[in-house]
Structures are given as C-alpha cells and as structure tokens.
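Dear Dr. V.,

Thank you for agreeing to look over these. As mentioned in my earlier message, I'm a first-year student in the group and I'm still getting used to reading structure tokens, so any feedback on how I've presented them would be very welcome. I ran two proteins. I've put each sequence directly above its structure. The first is here:
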Amino acid sequence: MTPHSPGTGQINTLIWIGFFAALIVVVAINLGLFGALRRFRGGRGRTAHAVQGKPGLQFRVAGTLAGFALVLFVLGIIFTGNALSTPKTTAAGLTSLNGEKLEGEPLVIKATGQQWLWRYNYPNGAFSYWKLVIPVDTEIEMKLESTDVVHTWSVPDLAPKVDAVPGKDTQVIFRADAEGEFYGQSATLSGQAYAPMRTTVEVVSPQRFEEFIKEQQRGIKAGQEAAERIETQKLKEEEAAEGGSSEESTSEGESE
C-alpha cells in the first residue's frame, strides 16, 4: 500500500509499528533461547543442569512486556483515532463548483454498485462509469448503494474499503493528497464476474475537475438530444407508414 490520504497514511504507519514490534519480540525471544542454550548446555566434563532464575527476574520480564504492550496500545489508539478523524478540504482544494461555494462542506458523490460495474453520480447531474474523478486536497463524502448484491468498494491507497449493501446507505469520507490514478478492485464475492469488477480513481486539480464536470454535462446533453432526434424520426416514419396504409385502404375501397 502506498498511502495518498491522511487516513491511509495513519493506518500504514500503524502497520509498520506493529511489524517492527512483532520483529522485536521474535528476535528477543530467540536471542534469549540461544543464550540459555549456550550458557547451560551440556559438554565434556560438565553436566547440563536445570536453570534457576534470579529472584525478581520474572517480575522484571513481566514488567517489561507489560510496558511494551501498553506503549503499543496507546500508539494504536492514537493512530486509529487520527485515521478515523474527518479530513477537511485544504486551501488548495475545491472551494466551489459551477459557481456555488462549498463553504467547508464535503463534495458529495454517489457510487452505485451493480453486477458488475460502478456508476458515479456527481453534483448537477453529471455521471461516469468505472472511473471516479475527484479534485485533490478536497474532502470527499462518497455515499454507496447497491442495486443487487453486496459489493465492496476498495481503493487501499486512498480510503478504507466499504460495502455497498442493497437497501442500505453507507458512506466513506476521505481526501486525496496527490494527483494521479489509483486502482481498486472488488473485495467481496458478488457473482461470477466479481474479479474483473475494478475501479480507477483519477485525482486531478480543482480546475480540471470543474472542466470534467462540464464535459460530462455536455456529453450527457448531446446524448439526450441525439436520442430525442432518433425517437422523433422514428415516430415520423411510423406516422408516414400508417398514412400510406390508410391511403391504400381508401383507394381499394373506391375501386370496388
């Protein structure tokens, strides 16, 4: 994992702390065992004997381990608390969209999971499939839902994974601190094609994000107009065909 958000950065640090703590314990135990074997092993001219600890040794060892565990416990609380805290939009983030100020509020995006694709709905009617585009240094509140089964949205570099559950609204709040593309994939079995149910998050500048929203809106409008033209043309053709049929029927009646 390469963290690019405050929450994932804290979790990544906590993982490394846990790794080094476990490494220290394993090394200390093995060094103690090898030291005891070397010191008290049998050999020529001597017989191995039972080890007798010095008075108070058990209490010193227990106290050391208890202190070590207490330090890990406190660090876990601190880093977990920081990871769960809500990241706020910075001065370099998105402060307004389409002329309307966010005024410290998060940018709300709706993510809908379905077999087997993600759809993202942005403010003002824009939407995209598969790829989520967000502005850098901006607090994002993503609301998730599912149309069929449980889907898990997971982009480890940016946010903790979260489930999209049918009939239930869930959410995740995060902030991307660097521009670029970040990749995720489904983490819950949702059917035969869950493995290729992937997503990409493209983090762009606030200016580029506003351009993207306008481009999506123009594309949606153009698509709707094209669909309306096709439907209108289809109706005209059907009316013309019905008119031709009526004229033929009238002509046949007059000839009789």
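The second protein is here, in the same arrangement:
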Amino acid sequence: MIKIYDTDKISVGEIVKREKNSSGVEEIVSAVIENVAKNGDAALREYTKKFDKADLGSLEVSESEIADAFAQTDEKFIEIIKKAKENIYNFHKHQVKNSFVISEKDGVVLGQKVIPIEKVGVYVPGGTAPLPSTVLMTVIPAVIAGVSEIVMATPPRADGTVNPVILAAAKIAGVTKIFKVGGSQAIAALAYGTESIPKVDKIVGPGNAFVAEAKKQVFGMVDIDMIAGPSDILVIADGTCDPEYVAADMLSQAEHDKLATAVLVTDSAELAKNVSEEIEKQLSVLPREEIARVSIDNNGKIIIAKDIPNAVEIANMIAPEHLEICVDNPFDYLDKVKNAGSVFLGKNCPEALGDYFAGPNHTLPTNGTARFSSPLSVDDYVKKTAFTYYTYDALAKVSEDIAYFAEKEALSGHARSAVVRTRKK
C-alpha cells in the first residue's frame, strides 16, 4: 500500500530524504572491466554465456539478421516507429548549435568550432522488456549532430538473437554497427575496444546498477551521458483530477523497476485517498504487478501539500525525472518549475507521450540530478573547440598586460612567451 504524508505533520525534507545506495557492485564491475580490457572478445563470450545463457560465434549482428528482424516485426509497429522517429527528429533538430567567428578591426579573430564526436556507443538494455524507444532517443540526436559511427550494444536472448523490434528500431534510427553484448561487460568493451567492438569516445544509454557503475568507472577513459538510476515520476494534481488517470500515470513508472519511484503531490486529501485506492485496484490487473507492487510499497509516496504552488515547491525539492502538472491551467506554473527532467502539462499529457512519441528526449536525469543536469540532446554528441588569431600589431598592444598578469601568478615562462616576439622589434 502506498504511503500518504501530510506536510502539516512531517517536513518535506524528511519525506523525500534519499538513502545512500551501497549496492556492493563496485568490486564486481571493476573485475569485469579489467577482464574485458585484458581478454577482449573471449571475456565477452564468457560473460554472455554466463549471464545471458547464449553461446555466441560472431558478436556482431549481421545484415541478414536485421532483415529478418524487419520481417518479424509487424508493419503497423514499423510505421509507428517511423512516426516517432519523425517527431523526435523534428524536436531535436532545433537543438543544433553552429560554429561562430568574431572578427575585430584591430587584427583579432576569435571563434568556436562545433565538432561532432566521431564514435559513440549506445547501450540498450534487454531486461524484462525490450526498449526500442531507447534506441530512437539515443541514436537520433547523434545522427543530427553528425556522429559518423554509432555503435550499439544490447544483450542477446538465450538463443543468441536480439529482440527483432530492437534491431528494426536501430536500422530505422541510423545505427552503424550492432553487437550482442550486455551488462557491464558491454560498457567495458565500448570503452576499451576489443577484437570485434571498436573503442568509442562516448557511451550513452540507460541500464541496471551494473551498467551504471561501469559507466561511472570508465568515465575519463571515455565520456558518458549520465549515471542514470531507477526511473521516477512526480504528479502534481488538484482535487479536480480523475484518480484513475493519476494512478495509471504513477504505475506507468512503477512497472519499470522494483526500485522505481512514483510520487503524487496534491492539495486534496480526498484525491490522495482515492488515488491510493485506485492504485490498488489497477495493480491487481497489471501484468507487471510483481514489479510495480514492490516499487509502490517501498518507494511510492502521496504528499498532501497546502496548495498547488506549494506542490511545485515540493517538486523542485525532489527534482523528478518526469513531472506531470495535472491541473487546468498548467502554464501558470511552468515558469516556477526549476528542477525537472521533462515536464508534462495538463490533464491530457501522460508521461508515456514522452517515452515514445511526442519528440522530447526520454533519457532524463534521475535520482534528483535534474537539479544540475539535463535531458539527452544533440549537445551531448558534439564538442566545442575555440580558436584565436592575433596579428603582430594586435599582440603588441596587449603583450605587456599579459606578461604583467602572468607575473602576478608567478609564471615567468608565460610572461616571457607573451613579450618575446614584440620586444625584439
């Protein structure tokens, strides 16, 4: 049963307090990374047999396997994937930033180049449900950014095949190569490279605790998008909302993972009670009840706030991955939202719109990190390089100032490099 809290009786800080997770996976992941870095494909085959029960020959998915995947995927779903791709593309194309040059009259040229990352690794989980939506969300921004090589890793099934909807989505989105490798060993392979899998420059995509820990440990060897935790949702709803809708939206995240978090913040004690009852009713018919039940019982919360502005304040404290504002005038509160991965406005905007179809990315900051980080975007697939040009006369005007500055930092070599050219004449 979901827990109900009243902010008149308990502080918000106590309600949303986060426990430190000491999962103990660090040593396991470290050993996996070391083994893959040392033994390459042999280690990957060993782990794939152990964890995925698949005995693989080639690790790479062939073109014929991709063609078979299309044949196995129903045409209606192929068309829906293509529609989703178009929406995601049309949203993310507005994120593209251009290089710029500043030319000044006194012989100074300054600028910035925006350069695509050359090789990106995309991790797509296998887990308890296939996630073709993750393929679209991670790959399409990379294509828009101009990444030349997009390498996808995803765990195989026991028969050595990859779920066909994953392969179909990868082909439609624009993946360059696909490999049948999952878990922390896939992250290690993408970071260090093996005989089959190329070393990439950046790794993106969600995963379980082992994948998240692996990304954390290889950061520095490669870049990563974020260290994502379990999914979470916070719904702000007033007393006019239908409890059936609110409960359904909360369970849409609870069914992801036993560690997922679903929170309702409302100004109505009656709605709180009704949503609690509705959650129990819907759980009883949910196919993934076992997972969602643990999530709701352990992590679910209903918080009764003073009013809707207070509910927004509480949401900013929690900094949810997904924030729904289920009121009749949601835009009145949008400017007051400071910390949220993605915001869904109004009573007709379930979070599932963002998961699959609307266009904004569903790879979002979790576990309160929306306080300082952002959804995956085209920006994640580019790097920026600055450039500077000075003529002799332009340098001569400022060289003594540069040298004086450098001497204040006790860096005489810097000072000399600034004046050595101009003092000779």
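From my reading of the second output: The mean pLDDT is 94. The chain has 17 helices and 14 strands. Does that match how you would interpret it?

Kind regards,
E.
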